[in-house]
Amino acid sequence: MNKQDYDTPFQNMLKSFNAAVSDYDPFPGIRDDASLIPDRLRNNLIKAGEDCLPGSYVPITARDYMSFVRTGDRSAYEERYFSRRHRINALITAETVERKGRFIDDIIDGIYCICEESTWVLPAHNTYIRDTPQIILPDTDRPVLDLFACETAALLAMTYYLLKDRLDTVSKLICKRIFSETDKRLITPYLNDHFWWMGNGDEPMCNWTPWCTQNVLLSAFLLPFDSDIRMNVIRQAVYSLDCFMKDYGEDGCCDEGAQYYRHAGLCLFHCIDILNRVTGDAFGDMWNSPKIRNIASYIVNVHACGEYYVNFSDCSAKAGRMGVREFLFGKACHLDALMEAAAEDVHHAFDSGDLLADESLKLNLFCRMLSIAYAGEALKHHEDMSDKPPILARDIYYPSVGVMVARTPRFVLAAKAGDNADNHNHNDTGSFILYMDDKPMFVDIGVETYSRKTFSKDRYEIWTMQSGYHNLPTIDGLDQKDGEQYRATDVKCDLGDTSKTISMHIEDAYPLPDRHSVGDHYIRKMTLDASSETFTLTDTTGINDVILNFITYEPVEKTDSLDTYMLGDALITFTGASVIETETLPITDARLKLAWDHDLYRIRLRMEDAEFVMHVQCK
Description:
It contains 18 helices and 21 strands. The protein is an alpha+beta fold.
């Protein structure tokens, strides 16, 4: 694909802009009048700041940085790096809403600690060329721009925006240092070097593009850069965003999963909003774009129930509740379902005191302040909608990725067709996830804590990435392989009012030696029936050696009836296969423990006939 082969909506809109750009002023109200924040929230923010007093910023050493290349361990450096940013964000927020100056000295300490770090890039990202080995130590004369270098610059820019008047009363050198370091470490390399996430023709993009671009835009327009620099930033930003958009289908599906929607879809929203505000509505037509509206709606469509989401790829089943940012995206695009769902979650989080509990809101000061500034509007919307019938989530099929989500009053089924070349891919073509009565039944395990191996050539040695630990068969002793050629074929999806069905061939997802011989077909069909509240899985094949793997939230227990089992409150029957093994999958990893309350389970069956049927019936 050449640069001319895909749509360039952002660049096209910029062509019609010929005025001067303005500053970005996202929070003019609460910056000057903290009484606009609900009392309980304001008191909680001050208390969180007080919890950081007295205190200090943990030291970071070169040895911590080198440990990633030496051992693959990310935590030694990252825990210290992020703790500094969590602490200063809490202090800045408290000072912004209290305005008494008692947090200022600790904030200044944090500013200088961060400005004196040798680099803002994480060890796992310290490389100049995509997918090449990381350099053991940073080059202070040649900054790398990764996700968190850009986030750090935006943090300092937000500090300047929120507290410049109070910092200047101590010394004008503080804000001068913020501007200087941001220019040297972010804006100058952004305008003079090329980093892969900035886009280059047909090179594939991912969540890095809008995530980094959002923070570059924040830095350029919250700090007093001149208009020429700002316009150059905009030109590069719109090119990058068009490169990002080319990899999305018109249906708006995020192939990285619900968790990465927060960094892909939501950061895209912020990029559009910033561009639109600083150009006097030059990008306003984006809110009416069907593709942008579909990207916004994705998170509602893949919500399963409660805290749970459809979680293919490197996504946790508990991907994080929606919040103020989703509410604002829905408002901008006039999407009632997204606004209602997000407002409901804001109400839940506000009542439980968890409004800012999400990790991204602890780390990203801009997103944190958005949640503070607009929580009241989301709560008001929830109140206004309380006496109206809820907007029900719809059945949907995303052809760009091959994901189907179908619902009945008691079931939620998600199925994955597509291929094994998604961003953050797991080898999971043909797998499925099933919830019943707002509880997980058949699950996708998710991904363990990231390490060097996670994003290396050895990625698929990790058990959670392998098809044998998804709801998939092992065929002729082989599990699926990664790559675009390993895919589902002949996919058919029918989302009727009563019966919701998807079928596909999945034999091509396996590295079978004679993949197109007469007997190597493997057809998988899934049906959700609303009239009988049943789920049926039918596998048909001419292959003799098939082991079926199923990952369950609770253990499968045998009943007195032949071939009938209990899984939670459901009855399951197996026809055409016999159980050969059940095992416990210990959940010991810290990241997996956030998603699962206890161990998971795998049941394995040997297929004995040409057709296997699993029938799940509500009790």
